[in-house]
Amino acid sequence: MSAGAAGVAGPFGVFERMVAWRYLRARRREGFVSVIAAISFSGIMLGVATLIVVMAVMNGFRQEMLSRVLGIDGHLVVEAGDQPLGDWQDLSALFATIPGVRTAVPLIEGQVLASARIGVGNGAKVRGLDEAALKSLEPVVKNVTQGTLDGFDTAGGVVIGQGLAEMIGAGLGDNVTLVSPDGEVTELGVNPQVKAYPVIAVFAVGGNGYDSAVVFLPFGEAQSFFKMPDAAGSIELFLDDPHGVEAVKAVVADTAGRPLKLTDWREANKTFFDALQVERNLMFMALTLIVLVAALNIVSGLIMMVKDKGQDIGILRTIGASRAAVMRVFMMTGSVIGVAGTAAGVALGVAASLNIDGLSAFFSIFSGNSSGFLNRLPAVMNLGETISVVVMALALTFIAVVFPAWRAARLDPVQALKST
Protein backbone atom coordinates (compact mmCIF):
# COMPACT_ATOMS: atom_id res chain seq x y z
CA MET A 1 0.00 0.00 0.00
CA SER A 2 1.30 3.50 -0.85
CA ALA A 3 2.11 6.19 1.63
CA GLY A 4 -1.03 8.04 0.62
CA ALA A 5 -3.14 5.01 1.36
CA ALA A 6 -1.48 4.63 4.73
CA GLY A 7 -2.46 8.18 5.56
CA VAL A 8 -6.08 7.30 4.97
CA ALA A 9 -6.04 4.56 7.60
CA GLY A 10 -6.75 6.79 10.63
CA PRO A 11 -10.27 8.21 10.84
CA PHE A 12 -10.22 11.98 10.26
CA GLY A 13 -6.46 11.70 9.80
CA VAL A 14 -4.08 14.12 8.14
CA PHE A 15 -4.73 12.80 4.64
CA GLU A 16 -8.51 13.02 4.95
CA ARG A 17 -8.32 16.57 6.34
CA MET A 18 -5.96 17.58 3.53
CA VAL A 19 -8.32 16.28 0.82
CA ALA A 20 -11.35 17.93 2.47
CA TRP A 21 -9.49 21.23 2.67
CA ARG A 22 -8.50 21.05 -1.01
CA TYR A 23 -12.14 20.50 -1.97
CA LEU A 24 -13.16 23.58 0.04
CA ARG A 25 -10.75 25.75 -1.98
CA ALA A 26 -12.76 26.20 -5.15
CA ARG A 27 -11.00 26.62 -8.48
CA ARG A 28 -12.26 28.79 -11.31
CA ARG A 29 -14.18 25.97 -13.01
CA GLU A 30 -15.85 25.10 -9.70
CA GLY A 31 -17.15 28.61 -9.16
CA PHE A 32 -20.81 27.58 -8.98
CA VAL A 33 -20.07 25.12 -6.18
CA SER A 34 -18.23 27.89 -4.36
CA VAL A 35 -21.22 30.21 -4.69
CA ILE A 36 -23.51 27.58 -3.15
CA ALA A 37 -21.04 27.09 -0.30
CA ALA A 38 -20.93 30.85 0.30
CA ILE A 39 -24.73 31.05 0.30
CA SER A 40 -24.92 28.15 2.74
CA PHE A 41 -22.35 29.79 5.02
CA SER A 42 -24.20 33.13 4.91
CA GLY A 43 -27.57 31.48 5.52
CA ILE A 44 -26.39 29.59 8.59
CA MET A 45 -24.59 32.66 9.93
CA LEU A 46 -27.62 34.94 9.53
CA GLY A 47 -30.02 32.28 10.82
CA VAL A 48 -28.02 31.66 13.99
CA ALA A 49 -27.44 35.38 14.55
CA THR A 50 -31.12 36.19 14.05
CA LEU A 51 -32.18 33.44 16.44
CA ILE A 52 -29.82 34.69 19.15
CA VAL A 53 -30.93 38.32 18.76
CA VAL A 54 -34.65 37.51 18.65
CA MET A 55 -34.45 35.22 21.68
CA ALA A 56 -32.47 37.87 23.60
CA VAL A 57 -34.96 40.61 22.72
CA MET A 58 -37.96 38.46 23.65
CA ASN A 59 -36.30 37.53 26.95
CA GLY A 60 -35.62 41.20 27.61
CA PHE A 61 -39.17 42.16 26.65
CA ARG A 62 -40.62 39.51 28.97
CA GLN A 63 -38.36 40.60 31.82
CA GLU A 64 -39.21 44.26 31.24
CA MET A 65 -42.94 43.58 31.21
CA LEU A 66 -42.63 41.32 34.24
CA SER A 67 -40.77 43.98 36.22
CA ARG A 68 -43.39 46.59 35.37
CA VAL A 69 -46.33 44.33 36.17
CA LEU A 70 -44.78 43.10 39.42
CA GLY A 71 -43.66 46.60 40.31
CA ILE A 72 -47.24 47.88 40.58
CA ASP A 73 -49.50 44.90 41.28
CA GLY A 74 -48.99 42.74 44.32
CA HIS A 75 -47.33 39.36 43.92
CA LEU A 76 -50.03 37.69 46.02
CA VAL A 77 -53.55 39.04 46.52
CA VAL A 78 -55.53 37.99 49.60
CA GLU A 79 -59.32 38.35 49.50
CA ALA A 80 -62.25 37.13 51.59
CA GLY A 81 -64.33 35.98 48.64
CA ASP A 82 -67.29 38.30 48.00
CA GLN A 83 -67.00 39.99 51.40
CA PRO A 84 -64.69 42.85 52.41
CA LEU A 85 -61.90 42.23 54.90
CA GLY A 86 -63.08 43.68 58.20
CA ASP A 87 -59.95 42.53 60.03
CA TRP A 88 -57.59 43.90 57.41
CA GLN A 89 -55.38 45.64 59.98
CA ASP A 90 -54.68 42.47 61.96
CA LEU A 91 -54.19 40.39 58.82
CA SER A 92 -51.82 42.94 57.27
CA ALA A 93 -49.66 42.98 60.40
CA LEU A 94 -49.70 39.18 60.54
CA PHE A 95 -48.79 38.67 56.87
CA ALA A 96 -45.97 41.24 57.10
CA THR A 97 -44.16 38.96 59.59
CA ILE A 98 -44.06 36.00 57.17
CA PRO A 99 -40.52 35.34 55.85
CA GLY A 100 -40.23 36.41 52.23
CA VAL A 101 -42.98 39.05 52.46
CA ARG A 102 -41.59 42.55 51.92
CA THR A 103 -44.80 44.52 52.52
CA ALA A 104 -48.50 43.83 53.04
CA VAL A 105 -50.66 46.56 51.51
CA PRO A 106 -54.40 46.93 52.31
CA LEU A 107 -56.20 47.89 49.13
CA ILE A 108 -59.60 48.94 47.86
CA GLU A 109 -60.30 48.54 44.15
CA GLY A 110 -63.28 49.48 42.07
CA GLN A 111 -64.32 50.32 38.53
CA VAL A 112 -65.36 53.90 37.82
CA LEU A 113 -66.12 56.26 34.98
CA ALA A 114 -63.63 59.15 35.01
CA SER A 115 -64.28 62.46 33.29
CA ALA A 116 -62.85 65.98 33.31
CA ARG A 117 -62.85 68.87 30.83
CA ILE A 118 -63.60 66.58 27.89
CA GLY A 119 -67.24 65.60 28.28
CA VAL A 120 -66.85 61.93 27.35
CA GLY A 121 -65.88 59.77 30.31
CA ASN A 122 -63.41 56.94 30.25
CA GLY A 123 -63.44 53.68 32.20
CA ALA A 124 -60.78 53.41 34.88
CA LYS A 125 -59.80 51.32 37.89
CA VAL A 126 -59.46 53.05 41.24
CA ARG A 127 -56.79 51.67 43.56
CA GLY A 128 -57.18 52.99 47.08
CA LEU A 129 -54.01 52.74 49.19
CA ASP A 130 -52.01 54.85 51.61
CA GLU A 131 -49.08 57.12 50.82
CA ALA A 132 -46.40 54.73 52.09
CA ALA A 133 -47.73 51.95 49.88
CA LEU A 134 -47.93 54.25 46.85
CA LYS A 135 -44.35 55.40 47.34
CA SER A 136 -43.20 51.78 47.46
CA LEU A 137 -44.31 51.32 43.82
CA GLU A 138 -41.03 52.14 42.06
CA PRO A 139 -42.42 52.28 38.48
CA VAL A 140 -44.84 55.00 39.62
CA VAL A 141 -42.43 56.92 41.87
CA LYS A 142 -39.70 57.01 39.20
CA ASN A 143 -42.06 58.16 36.44
CA VAL A 144 -44.02 61.04 38.03
CA THR A 145 -44.16 63.68 35.27
CA GLN A 146 -46.27 66.29 37.06
CA GLY A 147 -46.90 67.11 40.70
CA THR A 148 -45.70 65.16 43.73
CA LEU A 149 -46.73 62.19 45.80
CA ASP A 150 -45.87 63.94 49.06
CA GLY A 151 -48.89 64.44 51.25
CA PHE A 152 -50.96 61.99 49.24
CA ASP A 153 -52.93 60.82 52.30
CA THR A 154 -54.06 64.32 53.30
CA ALA A 155 -54.20 66.16 49.97
CA GLY A 156 -57.65 64.78 49.13
CA GLY A 157 -56.74 64.33 45.47
CA VAL A 158 -55.94 61.60 42.96
CA VAL A 159 -52.86 60.42 41.06
CA ILE A 160 -53.63 59.44 37.46
CA GLY A 161 -51.74 58.07 34.47
CA GLN A 162 -50.60 60.22 31.56
CA GLY A 163 -52.75 58.29 29.08
CA LEU A 164 -55.92 58.75 31.11
CA ALA A 165 -55.13 62.42 31.66
CA GLU A 166 -54.87 62.98 27.91
CA MET A 167 -58.06 61.05 27.14
CA ILE A 168 -60.24 63.00 29.59
CA GLY A 169 -58.42 66.33 29.22
CA ALA A 170 -57.17 66.57 32.80
CA GLY A 171 -54.02 68.26 33.98
CA LEU A 172 -52.34 69.02 37.28
CA GLY A 173 -54.83 70.78 39.56
CA ASP A 174 -57.88 69.97 37.42
CA ASN A 175 -60.83 68.16 38.94
CA VAL A 176 -61.53 64.58 37.86
CA THR A 177 -65.06 63.33 38.41
CA LEU A 178 -65.36 59.67 39.40
CA VAL A 179 -68.66 57.85 38.97
CA SER A 180 -69.20 54.46 40.58
CA PRO A 181 -72.30 52.35 39.84
CA ASP A 182 -72.19 50.98 43.42
CA GLY A 183 -73.88 53.89 45.09
CA GLU A 184 -76.63 54.44 47.64
CA VAL A 185 -79.68 52.20 47.44
CA THR A 186 -83.02 54.08 47.45
CA GLU A 187 -86.65 53.20 46.78
CA LEU A 188 -86.16 54.29 43.19
CA GLY A 189 -83.07 52.19 42.69
CA VAL A 190 -79.33 52.66 43.10
CA ASN A 191 -77.97 56.17 42.91
CA PRO A 192 -74.44 56.19 41.43
CA GLN A 193 -71.68 57.48 43.67
CA VAL A 194 -70.25 60.69 42.15
CA LYS A 195 -67.41 62.81 43.46
CA ALA A 196 -64.77 65.14 42.04
CA TYR A 197 -61.11 65.09 43.10
CA PRO A 198 -58.23 67.38 42.11
CA VAL A 199 -55.26 65.88 40.27
CA ILE A 200 -52.20 66.14 42.51
CA ALA A 201 -49.80 64.10 40.35
CA VAL A 202 -49.49 62.45 36.93
CA PHE A 203 -47.32 59.42 36.14
CA ALA A 204 -46.24 57.76 32.88
CA VAL A 205 -45.09 54.18 33.38
CA GLY A 206 -45.38 53.30 29.67
CA GLY A 207 -45.51 49.91 27.97
CA ASN A 208 -48.76 48.72 29.56
CA GLY A 209 -52.34 49.76 30.35
CA TYR A 210 -51.68 51.47 33.68
CA ASP A 211 -51.20 54.90 32.19
CA SER A 212 -54.65 54.90 30.64
CA ALA A 213 -56.65 52.95 33.20
CA VAL A 214 -55.48 53.51 36.78
CA VAL A 215 -56.46 56.16 39.34
CA PHE A 216 -54.76 56.13 42.74
CA LEU A 217 -56.95 57.36 45.59
CA PRO A 218 -56.03 57.70 49.31
CA PHE A 219 -57.13 54.63 51.26
CA GLY A 220 -59.44 56.48 53.62
CA GLU A 221 -61.06 58.37 50.77
CA ALA A 222 -61.52 55.12 48.85
CA GLN A 223 -63.27 53.61 51.89
CA SER A 224 -65.69 56.53 51.90
CA PHE A 225 -66.22 56.57 48.12
CA PHE A 226 -66.93 52.85 47.83
CA LYS A 227 -68.98 52.70 51.06
CA MET A 228 -66.56 50.36 52.83
CA PRO A 229 -65.97 51.93 56.26
CA ASP A 230 -63.53 50.06 58.45
CA ALA A 231 -62.84 47.46 55.74
CA ALA A 232 -60.49 46.68 52.88
CA GLY A 233 -61.25 44.92 49.62
CA SER A 234 -58.03 42.94 49.61
CA ILE A 235 -54.47 42.78 50.90
CA GLU A 236 -51.65 42.73 48.37
CA LEU A 237 -48.41 41.08 49.41
CA PHE A 238 -45.14 42.15 47.79
CA LEU A 239 -42.45 39.47 48.05
CA ASP A 240 -38.67 39.56 48.08
CA ASP A 241 -38.68 36.89 45.36
CA PRO A 242 -41.81 36.88 43.16
CA HIS A 243 -40.84 33.49 41.72
CA GLY A 244 -41.07 31.94 45.19
CA VAL A 245 -44.74 32.88 45.53
CA GLU A 246 -45.91 29.27 45.77
CA ALA A 247 -44.08 28.66 49.05
CA VAL A 248 -45.30 31.94 50.55
CA LYS A 249 -48.82 31.20 49.36
CA ALA A 250 -48.93 28.01 51.40
CA VAL A 251 -47.65 29.80 54.52
CA VAL A 252 -50.23 32.60 54.11
CA ALA A 253 -53.04 30.06 53.86
CA ASP A 254 -51.90 28.37 57.10
CA THR A 255 -51.26 31.63 58.94
CA ALA A 256 -54.67 33.17 58.17
CA GLY A 257 -56.49 30.53 60.18
CA ARG A 258 -59.59 30.79 57.98
CA PRO A 259 -60.50 30.27 54.32
CA LEU A 260 -59.27 33.07 52.07
CA LYS A 261 -59.05 33.53 48.34
CA LEU A 262 -55.41 33.69 47.27
CA THR A 263 -54.43 34.79 43.75
CA ASP A 264 -50.77 35.07 42.74
CA TRP A 265 -49.28 37.11 39.91
CA ARG A 266 -48.89 34.06 37.65
CA GLU A 267 -52.62 33.37 37.73
CA ALA A 268 -53.54 37.03 37.28
CA ASN A 269 -51.30 37.42 34.20
CA LYS A 270 -51.45 33.86 32.90
CA THR A 271 -53.07 34.73 29.56
CA PHE A 272 -50.56 37.45 28.75
CA PHE A 273 -47.43 35.48 29.61
CA ASP A 274 -48.75 32.30 27.98
CA ALA A 275 -49.34 34.25 24.77
CA LEU A 276 -45.84 35.69 25.02
CA GLN A 277 -44.37 32.20 25.45
CA VAL A 278 -46.34 30.83 22.48
CA GLU A 279 -45.14 33.72 20.32
CA ARG A 280 -41.58 33.10 21.43
CA ASN A 281 -41.77 29.40 20.55
CA LEU A 282 -43.30 30.15 17.14
CA MET A 283 -40.56 32.67 16.40
CA PHE A 284 -37.92 30.09 17.29
CA MET A 285 -39.51 27.53 14.96
CA ALA A 286 -39.90 30.02 12.11
CA LEU A 287 -36.33 31.27 12.34
CA THR A 288 -35.02 27.71 12.57
CA LEU A 289 -36.28 27.27 9.01
CA ILE A 290 -33.62 29.77 7.90
CA VAL A 291 -30.92 27.48 9.25
CA LEU A 292 -32.66 24.46 7.72
CA VAL A 293 -32.74 26.07 4.26
CA ALA A 294 -29.05 26.90 4.57
CA ALA A 295 -28.34 23.29 5.56
CA LEU A 296 -30.24 22.09 2.49
CA ASN A 297 -28.01 24.34 0.39
CA ILE A 298 -25.05 22.43 1.80
CA VAL A 299 -26.70 19.21 0.58
CA SER A 300 -27.09 20.53 -2.96
CA GLY A 301 -23.56 21.89 -2.98
CA LEU A 302 -22.07 18.60 -1.80
CA ILE A 303 -24.08 16.58 -4.30
CA MET A 304 -22.72 18.77 -7.10
CA MET A 305 -19.23 18.41 -5.66
CA VAL A 306 -19.54 14.61 -5.53
CA LYS A 307 -20.60 14.58 -9.16
CA ASP A 308 -17.71 16.85 -10.11
CA LYS A 309 -15.16 14.88 -8.08
CA GLY A 310 -16.10 11.45 -9.43
CA GLN A 311 -12.66 10.87 -10.92
CA ASP A 312 -10.95 11.91 -7.67
CA ILE A 313 -13.13 9.50 -5.72
CA GLY A 314 -12.23 6.70 -8.13
CA ILE A 315 -8.52 7.41 -7.70
CA LEU A 316 -8.83 7.54 -3.90
CA ARG A 317 -10.60 4.21 -3.84
CA THR A 318 -7.99 2.72 -6.24
CA ILE A 319 -5.05 3.69 -4.02
CA GLY A 320 -6.69 2.05 -1.01
CA ALA A 321 -9.08 4.58 0.55
CA SER A 322 -12.06 2.85 2.11
CA ARG A 323 -15.65 3.88 1.62
CA ALA A 324 -15.67 5.16 5.21
CA ALA A 325 -12.65 7.36 4.47
CA VAL A 326 -14.33 8.87 1.40
CA MET A 327 -17.48 9.45 3.43
CA ARG A 328 -15.51 11.21 6.17
CA VAL A 329 -13.79 13.46 3.60
CA PHE A 330 -17.08 14.81 2.28
CA MET A 331 -18.62 14.99 5.74
CA MET A 332 -15.74 17.18 6.84
CA THR A 333 -16.09 19.33 3.72
CA GLY A 334 -19.75 20.09 4.45
CA SER A 335 -19.36 20.26 8.22
CA VAL A 336 -16.68 22.95 7.99
CA ILE A 337 -19.21 25.23 6.26
CA GLY A 338 -21.78 24.58 9.01
CA VAL A 339 -19.33 24.98 11.89
CA ALA A 340 -17.81 28.17 10.45
CA GLY A 341 -21.26 29.61 9.71
CA THR A 342 -22.46 28.78 13.23
CA ALA A 343 -19.38 30.33 14.84
CA ALA A 344 -19.75 33.48 12.75
CA GLY A 345 -23.47 33.60 13.56
CA VAL A 346 -22.84 33.35 17.29
CA ALA A 347 -20.28 36.17 17.13
CA LEU A 348 -22.63 38.34 15.06
CA GLY A 349 -25.65 37.57 17.25
CA VAL A 350 -23.83 38.30 20.50
CA ALA A 351 -22.42 41.55 19.12
CA ALA A 352 -25.86 42.64 17.90
CA SER A 353 -27.51 41.74 21.23
CA LEU A 354 -24.94 43.72 23.20
CA ASN A 355 -25.49 46.75 20.95
CA ILE A 356 -29.25 46.41 20.48
CA ASP A 357 -29.97 49.99 21.57
CA GLY A 358 -27.74 51.40 18.84
CA LEU A 359 -29.29 49.13 16.22
CA SER A 360 -32.79 50.07 17.37
CA ALA A 361 -31.98 53.77 17.11
CA PHE A 362 -30.50 53.23 13.63
CA PHE A 363 -33.54 51.40 12.26
CA SER A 364 -35.93 53.88 13.90
CA ILE A 365 -34.54 56.49 11.50
CA PHE A 366 -35.97 54.56 8.55
CA SER A 367 -39.18 53.49 10.28
CA GLY A 368 -39.92 56.97 11.59
CA ASN A 369 -40.49 55.64 15.11
CA SER A 370 -38.50 57.87 17.43
CA SER A 371 -40.53 57.41 20.60
CA GLY A 372 -42.39 54.76 22.56
CA PHE A 373 -41.40 51.37 23.84
CA LEU A 374 -39.51 50.44 20.63
CA ASN A 375 -37.12 53.33 21.19
CA ARG A 376 -35.31 51.00 23.57
CA LEU A 377 -35.28 47.27 22.93
CA PRO A 378 -34.32 45.34 26.06
CA ALA A 379 -32.08 42.36 25.33
CA VAL A 380 -31.22 39.67 27.86
CA MET A 381 -29.06 36.82 26.61
CA ASN A 382 -29.53 33.38 28.09
CA LEU A 383 -26.54 31.02 27.98
CA GLY A 384 -28.73 27.92 27.82
CA GLU A 385 -30.72 29.26 24.88
CA THR A 386 -27.57 30.30 23.02
CA ILE A 387 -26.12 26.82 23.48
CA SER A 388 -29.39 25.27 22.24
CA VAL A 389 -29.23 27.42 19.09
CA VAL A 390 -25.64 26.32 18.46
CA VAL A 391 -26.48 22.64 19.03
CA MET A 392 -29.51 22.90 16.73
CA ALA A 393 -27.49 24.52 13.93
CA LEU A 394 -24.66 22.00 14.19
CA ALA A 395 -27.10 19.08 14.34
CA LEU A 396 -28.89 20.24 11.18
CA THR A 397 -25.54 20.64 9.45
CA PHE A 398 -24.26 17.18 10.39
CA ILE A 399 -27.55 15.55 9.39
CA ALA A 400 -27.50 17.42 6.06
CA VAL A 401 -24.01 16.23 5.05
CA VAL A 402 -24.64 12.54 5.72
CA PHE A 403 -26.56 11.78 2.51
CA PRO A 404 -24.14 13.43 0.01
CA ALA A 405 -21.17 11.86 1.82
CA TRP A 406 -22.88 8.47 1.75
CA ARG A 407 -23.47 8.82 -2.01
CA ALA A 408 -19.79 9.64 -2.50
CA ALA A 409 -18.77 6.55 -0.51
CA ARG A 410 -21.12 4.32 -2.54
CA LEU A 411 -19.65 5.49 -5.86
CA ASP A 412 -18.10 2.59 -7.79
CA PRO A 413 -14.44 3.49 -8.54
CA VAL A 414 -14.41 1.61 -11.89
CA GLN A 415 -17.52 3.39 -13.16
CA ALA A 416 -16.20 6.71 -11.83
CA LEU A 417 -12.94 6.33 -13.79
CA LYS A 418 -14.71 5.16 -16.94
CA SER A 419 -17.09 8.12 -16.91
CA THR A 420 -14.27 10.63 -17.09
Write a compact overview of the structure shown.
With 420 residues, the protein is of the alpha+beta class. It contains 18 helices and 10 strands.
Name the features.
57% helix; 6-stranded mixed beta barrel; alpha+beta; disordered N terminus
Please outline the helices and strands:
Elements lengths: L2 H6 L5 H11 L6 H42 L3 E4 L8 H9 L4 E15 L6 E8 L1 H5 L2 H4 L2 E4 L4 H4 L2 E4 H7 L6 E12 L2 E15 L6 H4 E5 H7 L8 E6 L5 H12 L4 E4 H4 L1 H39 L1 H9 L4 H32 L1 H12 L15 H28 L2 H6 L2
Helix pairs in contact: 2-15, 3-13, 3-15, 3-17, 13-15, 13-17, 15-17
Report on the structure:
The protein is an alpha+beta fold. It folds into two domains: 210 residues, no CATH class; 179 residues, no CATH class. 57% of the residues lie in helices and 18% in strands. It contains 18 helices and ten strands. It has a six-stranded mixed barrel with strand order 2-3-8-5-7-6. Helix 13 crosses helix 15. It is elongated.
Number of helices: 18
The class by helix and strand makeup works out as alpha+beta
Compute the average pLDDT.
81
**Contiguous uncertain segments of 5+ residues:** 1-9, 370-374
**Number of strand elements:** 10
Number of domains: 2
Largest sheet strand order: 2-3-8-5-7-6
Percentage of residues in DSSP E strands: 15-25%
Order of helices and strands: HHHEHEEHHEHEHEEHEHEHEHHHHHHH
Helical coverage, percent range? 55-70%
